[in-house]
Amino acid sequence: MKRLLIPTRLRHVQRRNKAEAIAAAPPQAPHVPVLCDTAIEHLQPVPGGTYIDMTFGAGGHTRRIFEKCPEAKVYALDRDPVAHQLARELCQQEKYKGRLIPLLGKFSDIPKLFEEHGLSRNSVNGVLFDFGCSSMQFDEAERGFSISKDGPLDMRMDKGHSGGVTAAEVLSKIEESDLARILRIYGEEKAAKKIARGLIDARKALVQIETTKQLADLVEDILSTGPRRDKLQRPSHSATKTFQALRIFVNNELNEINYGMVLANEILRRDGRLVTITFHSLEDTIVKRHINGNVVAGAANPLPLKYSGHDIIDDPEMLESLVQTNWKPLHRHVIVPDAEEVARNSRSRSAKLRAAVKVN
Questions:
Q1: DSSP state of 81
Q2: Distance (Å, rounded) from C-alpha 250 to C-alpha 252?
Q3: Taking a C-beta distance cutoff of 8 angstroms, is the pair 189, 246 a contact?
Q4: Residue 242, class by beta-carbon neighbours within 10 Å (0-12 exposed, 13-18 middle, 19+ buried)?
Q5: Which pTM was predicted?
């Protein structure tokens, strides 16, 4: 088949038209909220109600709360200074003044922030969590979250606002056994020992792992297993689970999620609503076990109820205390995005929404 030759002048015109079309196109939102309508439907904001968007991001869920109920009041929390600045800019708009209050911090900072703003226990009508990283964080190479974009290996969600160590610093100092444990537990990585050994060997050979590309390439070389697939049978980079594990460790994410669930129970009034959106099984398990009452000493039980051996306990009161819950689920099964939303936003594919009402 003969190749079609395009005159040089016509190619220039095509390029110019394409560039003009791109320039004229509306800017894309920095973060597309997942299951937004469903989340607000379950939150059911009411006039005069007080709500906390625990993960403000680019403000998609918060805006939808105000669209549904302009008379509501929303406290917008985020540990990311970029998201906090977006919230500060938004609250200057006339329609949000006095109704949107930006808060900078982690879930565990809520008690201090509540005290600063004169809020008390059992005073909030609804709490919304959208866990995990935002598209803004993945899309900015310098944040160090993305495998596909080369940048410094940082991964701190708060950009170092509260100190903490970067992922690069972790890899420069951690023991092999500890690294393997982090990869196995936080990344659910079956090859955790092999990857940990390879990364530590690279460090001993004076290889400094300081960028996302260096880490991704190293893990790929260590495994040499070719393309992987995730739990949904989608093509996945060999280093995906390693990146997830380091990100969770650097940001203490699972402990923060557990504490956030404990605090939601403390700050919500009776009949207040809890809505959570999770993106991997580690997050969803914590949420599910808090809602179902499978909590031991304030933390999600590492064992499912069916493996906990509660049937061997003779004391009925003790048995009841182990499974009692302050939550009533609003739906029987977990809610996931439909095919249309997944087609619009591929990052929604693994999302799971759970909602509950506080009953005690």
A1: H
A2: 6
A3: no
A4: buried
A5: 0.84
